[in-house]
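INFO  loader      accepted 1 record
INFO  loader      residues=985
INFO  predictor   begin
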Amino acid sequence: MESNIPQEWNKFYLKDVTFVNLMMRRVYNVLIVANPYDAFMLEDDGRVEEKIYNEYMELGLRYPPTFTQVSTIDEAEKVLMTTNVDLVLCMPGNADNDAFTVARDIKGRFPDIHCIVLTPFSHGITRRMQNEDLSMFDYVFCWLGNTNLILSIIKLIEDKMNIEHDIKEAGVQMILLVEDSVRFYSSILPNLYSYILVQSQRISTEALNRHSATMRMRGRPKVVLARSYEEAMELYEKYKDNTLGVISDARFPVNGEKDSDAGLKLLRAIRAQDEYVPLIMESSDSDNRQRAEAEGFRFVDKNSKKMSIDLKRIMEEHMGFGDFIFRNPVTREEIVRIHNLKELQDNIFKIPRDSMLYHISRNHMSRWLCARAIFPVSAFLKQVTWHKLQDVDAHRKIIFDAIVQYRHMKNTGVVAVFDRGKFDKYAHFARIGEGSLGGKGRGLAFLDNIIKRHPEFSQLPGVTVQIPKTVVLCTDVFDQFMEQNNLYQIALSDASDEEILAAFLKAQLPDSLIDDFFTFFEATGSPIAVRSSSLLEDAHYQPFAGIYSTYMIPWLDDKYAMLRMLAAAIKGVYASVYYRDSKAYMTATSNVIDQEKMAVILQSVVGKSYGDRYYPNMSGVLRSINYYPIGNETAEEGIASLALGLGKYIVDGGQTLRVSPYHPDQVLQTSEMETALRETQTKFYALDMKHVGEDFKVDDGFNILQLKVKDAVADNSLNYIVSTYDPYDQVIRDGLYDGGRKIVSFCGVLQQGIIPLPQLLRMSMEYGADSMRRPVEIEFACNVNADRTADFYLLQIRPIVDSKQMLDEDVASIPDSRCLLRSHRSLGHGVCEDVCDVVYVKYDDDFTAMNNPRVADDIERINRKFLADDRGYVLVGPGRWGSSDSWLGVPVKWPHISAARLIVEVALKNYRVDPSQGTHFFQNLTSFGVGYFTIDTNTGDGLFKKELLDSMEAIEETEYVRHVRFDKPLRILMDGMKQEGVCLC
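INFO  predictor   done
INFO  writer      dumping tokens
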């Protein structure tokens, strides 16, 4: 089918429009100049302000105007001098003179204010108007006491004020009314606005939440009134690309003279330029019906008692108001009635061919979408005419694809209210309930908004960037669950975690959620992650990340079994608020447990099904700041940790691949063969799709499989993810080959450009940190496909706020006199204030590396003591710590120094080795937050007061190593951004 569709319509991008900046100019203050009687009638009998306020509220309109009433020109002038008046209404028979005289006087003094004359009609008034110059007034209306007319006048003025801007901003539509009869347009405008404002409520039903609904109503069609042929043509020429329809009288001035054929001339001129725009003639001369209909124009008889009904019917059928009705072109019978955009998407392939042809060839769908303010799709389809593409099935696909793209575009970055009628596989993010989304929920919504604000994501070749399909159960659902099941008593007790979980699992969730969950299952078609999203979680200043449970449930054909598992998972997440660790953490962070409320995120799990297990072939955590930069990395360039399988493996501290998005070719772990074999991932996590049941445990990983990397070979999930070790040639080859150990190197996506992963990571980091105005941590997962495409999902964003890493002091400004150690090449960040001990290698100018293996033995033995006493220490020595070559440094392994909180390598005068900066056990440094100082006192690069340590009494001393203890804890300060570090004594 696609081969029949020209490329321009096969691959296209819709430009989103926003309604926020529409209708920016409003009539807020109205001054009515009327005699006391009319003022009384308006105030008491007409209750104009109350009526207009009620009218605004009923229609969902905001900003109803306020009214001030005066009865003389002097009173009017005082008000106009002191108040910002937007509109003056001059009514008949006021205290000074008639409406025309008052209006002329006010307009003369205040020429920029909109001024309307309201006058009763009689032969005398009609004759007077024929001789008066009315051009200085905005409009003259016939006043018969109908307060709805005042609402219409206000809307007409607002439309006139906003039309040019709103058409340029969003492509809103214009209805051109051509009528010079004051009595008639005074009668028709209230009816016309009544239809339009009802239509604006229909427009709002396409919105995803209440705020969007209010904003969408601003996209309603604008009405513009023209009173002559020249004025009408000027307006049409200016806005012809945005004309929804034209309603014209038959007789009005042409070149200043009344012309009984003016209407036909105007409609012919417009039809010559646009074969589709609906053209309606209204006339009191019934002979004009035949002439109008002969040329294909619609006709409304002004004399008909049901004229307003006739006009409404024609507008519904031809201007796209109301429902879209697919008809049989021969019998005019209704085939299908479409109420909204999703229904059109669902039915487009079911409509009979002849009916589709009838509506396509008349541009009906584009106009209906236009009337509903779905401007991007309407504008696109307006170009796809039957003349250009005479293939009904191709039109169906183009319409379907355009709607899908539009719905995806509108869903992105918006938290919709969950609606079973709208939530499908094209929906995105919705909430159930009116409470808070919680910390993770807010983070997800924010990520979605970042994606929407940065279309650069969608321009990367072969990659889609999005968040997983998500529904959030807001905090009010949690409140209802807790109260209706009387759970607070056991939740706040000292009961064990298992007892609390058992009580929660016995409780009932609201039955109203059942159908919502079934809709969500149908829309996702994948396993579901049930994640905590508490009020305190991922908060800017108190991150509670990792405190509460996250469960995963498999996709099951038995939807009721899946429903039971989902309910159990939600209750398990709720229960985790009251587990012992959660309560302890609350106390430690000075929070009160009963202030905590839990929202729950239901989210499609990123990954693919491989038999009985489910996982993505890449998960990761991205930090926009790197406190352990090595080589030519900088702290500001950030760091990513990548792993095969579910991201829980990373959170649980598994062996990941550490890479800078700005230096994807420089991966320390794969730089040497021995390192790659020793320090890359050997296990991964996957969801067990066979584990079915409600036997949920406190451990949220009860149904997570821990597998070996080699188990993934049979899944064919390692393409572009691994390198292969060849034991015969003792070499590691990039790519997946038979035989040999598989090294998780991500070489295909990092170095070979299979997908632009480094660029994706850089963009995510940059846009995330910029939007939050602080360093951020971002979780992500990705399916890298065999066809060199990828689906990249952003899962969570949170600020990096770690109490251990809160550094308020300027480290560089601390004087040397306070320092025991100072490094200008430090790794790590934060403050450590619980270390009193220093273990250092004894050396002098005649130091030799020959004894380094013995040094390692002494340090290993001392380290064991520190581990037994649960104490930390500062370790200082010459050369490279951890070097396998003992001539370059002390050949320790990480377990031999694992109690160290700060490791220092010192360059000596006669023993100068290129510093390692901790590369020999880098993973451990970064995982445990251990600081690493490099000092070379020979070149003035840092400071080490060894003489102070030498003068202290030793706790333990060997031939090669000395251990001293300070009376008070040392203060270790590390600025990871500037790579400045000090140890104060």
